[in-house]
Each structure stands twice: as C-alpha cells, then as structure tokens.
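Moderator note: this is an archived Q&A kept for reference. The question asked for a predicted structure of one protein chain; the sequence and the answer are reproduced below.
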Amino acid sequence: VDPRHTALSVDTQERGSDAVLHLARRLIAMRRDAPALRIGSFEIIDAAEPLLVFDRIDGANRIRCLFNLGDVTFHGGWLVHRIARQFYNDTPDGIIGNEDAGQMSAWYIFATLGFYPAQPASGTYVVGLPMVRRATIDAPGKQRLSIILHGSGDRLKKLSINGDRVDSLALPHEAIASGGTIGFTLGP
C-alpha cells in the first residue's frame, strides 16, 4: 500500500493527535461550544504546527483570531505580530477598519501585551507573544501588573505568573486583575 494512503487511513487518523480527522473534530466541537464562532469562516494555514485562523467580517471590520489546534505550545505569535505591524502605524490610515468603537485599538494593545480576551465572557485571555520587552499597567485601586519578556525567538517556551510556571495557554482574568508579574520566555 502506498504510504500516502496509509497516512490518510481512518485508523491512522484516529491514533494521531495532529491528524486531520482529530483536528476537524476539535474544530467542530469548538464551533458548537462557542456561539461567537458560529458565524464566520475558518481556514487552517500552512504553518509548522496546526494553526487555525477564524475570520469574521463585522461591518467594516475584519476580526481575525488564531487558535492553536495542536497539543503543544502555541507558535503562531509571528502572525499576530505581522498583522500588528502591517495594519497599525502612525499615519492617517494607520488603523485598519472602523475605529469608532475603539475595538481595533484595543486589539492592538492586547496584542502588544501578549494576551487577548478572545471570548470575554469566559473570564480567560488567550496567550500570545508580547511585542514589548516590558510593560506596566497601573489601574486605580489595583495592584500594578508587569509584563516581562525574556529571551528571543518566535516561540513561547515558558509562561509564568509571579514566578510560578503556567502550563495553560489561557490566563484567568483574576491573574491579570490581581496584579503581579506575568513572564513570557521566548526561544527558537
């Protein structure tokens, strides 16, 4: 049997966590469980890891979210950085889309800090890669939040909150609201 056919067999697909069948099932479950994802289009992009792009047109705005479909640390931060650099700048047309409600600027700020409330009602933030080495957020009546980037590269190697390693790609709102330090360590 030709090896190309064996790789596509259902039996092989069932065993592989990175197989197309497994990813398709995760995509269907994701759409079913998150009402905000039921309207829009999905595309799996050509990358070293299974990375899904969700696009939705909302008026003049194109909303783009990235989802890691693999079972390893998210490596798609390069795409978020490319979008931020390409579509946001200090020229008269430096913000893509309709900025009336401020959501485009908010996306940029979150992208710069390295996390984003992809589904705000969930109380969690999706982890990305910060675009700054250090940031400090001072909110009235709250503890100071510091974001610190260690190392270099285009992959997240370690995430920590107040020095404790975090093995999830989602930050709980409480971790951000209570202040402290969120550390991102990058590598190749």
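Archived answer notes: The mean pLDDT is 75.
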